[in-house]
Write the structure tokens for this entry.
Amino acid sequence: MSYTIALVEDDNLLRANYQKALERDGYRVQSYASRAEASTAFKEDLPDLAILDIMLGNEQEGGFRLCTELRQLSPTIPIIFLTARDSDIDRVSGLRLGGWDYMTKGTTTLDFLPVRISALFTIIETLGKKGRNENENPEAVLTFGPLQIYPDQKRVYWQKHLIDFTLTEFWLLYCLCRHPGHLKSHDQLMQAANIVVTGNAISAHIRRIREKFQTVDSSFTSIRTEYGMGYRWLAE
């Protein structure tokens, strides 16, 4: 699967250069020029990783504030600070707020940034495998009719077509499909994806999941909405 990275940087040229470097390595990039713009987007859909500048426009600590907001939405999303501020006080502040890494623009090249991000995703995938129940078969593939889900690879196929989901979308879908026919509430889905969002945001995620299935199968109807209660996967 390709990961989605949010890039929050107020310098137009730097933002464009970082975005090109990350896209060249196969990442999907959502870029934002301000804290407010990014904050609004994150409440609707979380990326797989966020790169934050600290000084955003007139907000001298905009990146720190945005990090706090992100941590309220998800305790585990990887956050990298990429900033011109290189004091130890700022480094400590960023890491204490929940940042995974702190890099300075003066020493971080366009070649190094994608490599560092790749290393973080490798750590995430390794921890995910170690956290799996010991009795669970790590190679187990979920198969229901035309659906195949490969948990280790985070890959989803429908009618033998690979569908590209974000990590959040993958875990929501996996939660639904592990027990076909079972009702999953908004709270259960949030817990499965390790996010804290509104019911409307969960609905938006489910809508996007449906839309991605419908791009390869216009007759897709396997996710049923149980209004006021949650969602269930209908096995064929």
